[in-house]
Specification:
The complex is a heterodimer of chains A (about 400) and B (about 280). Helices cover about 25% and strands about 30% of the residues of chain A. Chain A is an alpha+beta fold and about 400 residues long. In chain A, β11 and β12 form a beta hairpin. Chain B is mainly alpha-helical and about 280 residues long. In chain B, α8 runs antiparallel to α9. Chain B starts with a helix and ends with a helix. Classes of the chains: A alpha+beta (about 400), B mainly alpha (about 280). Chains A and B meet through β6, α4 and α6 of A and α8, α9 and α12 of B.
Chain lengths: ~400, ~280
Amino acid sequence: MMAEELARTHDETEPGAPAAELGKPESSLPDAVGMPLLRIEGVVKAFGGVRAVDGVSLDIRAGEFLALLGPSGCGKTTLLRMLAGFETPDEGRMLLNGRDIAQVLPHERPVNMMFQNYALFPHLSVRDNIAFGLKRAGLSRAEIKDRVAEMVALVKLKGLEKRRPDQLSGGQRQRVALARSLARCPQLLLLDEPLAALDKKLRESTQAELMEVQRRLGMTFIIVTHDQDEAMTVADRIGVMNAGRLAQLATPRQLYEAPRSRWIAEFVGDINVFEGKIEARETSRLTVATRDAGTLAVVEPRDAIGKANVAVAIRPEKLKLSRQGPAVDVASAHAVNRLEGVISDVSYLGGTTSYKVKLDSGAVVRASMSNTTRLDVDAYGLGQRVVVWFTPDDCVMLDQ
Amino acid sequence: MAAAAVTAGKAGQLSRFNIASLALGLAFLYLPIVILVIYSFNASRLVTVWGGWSLKWYRELFNDAAMIEAAWMSFRVAATSATIATMLGTLAAVALSRGDGFKGRTLFSGMLYAPLVMPEVITGLSLLLLFVALNAERGFWTVSIAHTTLTMCFVAVVVQSRLASIDRSLEEAAMDLGCDPPRAFLAVTLPLIVPAIVAGWMLAFTLSLDDLVIASFTTGPGSTTLPIRIYSEVRLGVKPEINAICTLVIALIAVLIIVASLAAKVSSAKGESAAPL
């Protein structure tokens, strides 16, 4: 699978190929040398006949920040709990630095976890919570004291060491939980929806702090989240899971711009999808006859699609709106796809404005435009007739 | 009128109707006890005639060696059986609430709680038959064991409800931070259920202290508990001295109940902070 992708990547010399990063193979990173820190091989876990995790394999290199993203019930938390040792895989191996940890008990793994509800010990102070794991590690009192002080400084909790968890705010508890899980210097830190309980603003600033801590300590983090903005913000790579399987493992950009399947395309961000049939194949270009958007010119995807029935997908921000259509010079440089319709809905969102355009075929497409000027005299109004256009490079070809 | 009462209730103030019903209910519950307590301070020999205030019967009580011995016996039985019942009940509660994989858990829970509703006569009789069959000498230990079987399920109920409110991820966090499962229990779960264990012990103690039926089935000569002693004295006619000992027992039990409920309150307050945000 990996070899195939590599081979495909080397073939990519035609004009109009996706940008450099999108062309990279997904599962191996350029600087991965030798064994990865963690290799998960064909892990399966079933609960009462239902396969919560169904044959997941992935590699994580040291120092990486990986996000597991997926709808609830996709198996991401089960996978994380198997890494922590709270669940034992039915099949497969989990190699941490070459050692299979699948059957190792939680307290014997060099792995720590930050729990979704933080799981702070309510009867212990902040200091004792952070020191809890250090005491079990057999450190001397002086070492524990130093390490706790270091952690308290790292997560900016100075002055709160003597408080109990119920005397802290949500954000402070989150920091204590982070400090506690980092104190033992785990080779791998697992974070189970660590920011779900925080409000939006606090979540954003905490995401930044989490990334900074991870970079500063050079640790390997695996975060489970259902929030794709969060995954994209913090992670180097994102593993999207669906129904117990790893649907795609890629950088945020690859995931968004080159989703491997229609399900991923629709799960990650917004997308307009036109179903159709391939009508003609030219060098590096396909012509697709769609039901809703007429004939579209599309760049041939890397994974050549064998079937005739395909879906052409395009993100809303890549649709351009205009009153007359693309400027002449743009139109001559590309084979531009051009649709016409009427604005049926306008949502002003601050940074962007989201439009719904009812095409003449009856289908509705979503387009979003950046509000780059404060006074936009050209904003489109309801019922206005517009031209929607996009270049073949901007669409993604997917199986139906 | 009824509407007015409802509105008044909503505002958090008691209407006249509410006050009256509350007073009636409390009088029904506590009037006999209040009368008993007042008459324990009666100077008259006759239980039914008021002869002025006096501590005479308390003095007499402390000179009644048989009564003091019975009280001491009851106290020892209560302390012993409460301690054993607390240990067994706590273990049962832990096993029932933490043993995920174990089949028939519902059946075991049900069986554990059955003695709560079992008529005491049946419990007492069956224990008596058991002790006779085992040819056990009846006395302090047979009563203590009998009271342990009675009170253990109460402890289990109290501890189990506390355990149910503790987030399982706390124990997982302890294991994640290097504790093996027994250590995780001792370091995290046990401190959190201590208030419930204390409450359970006090409940067991008071239940044992005031039990007459099971004790009279399972006790032997020379091991008379206080309730048995009082009951046999009363059959010969109520002496004011009985009022005095009853007042003391009421005071002791009231204190224990208050402490137990305070402990349970502390326990649940801690539980809230253990819960997710």
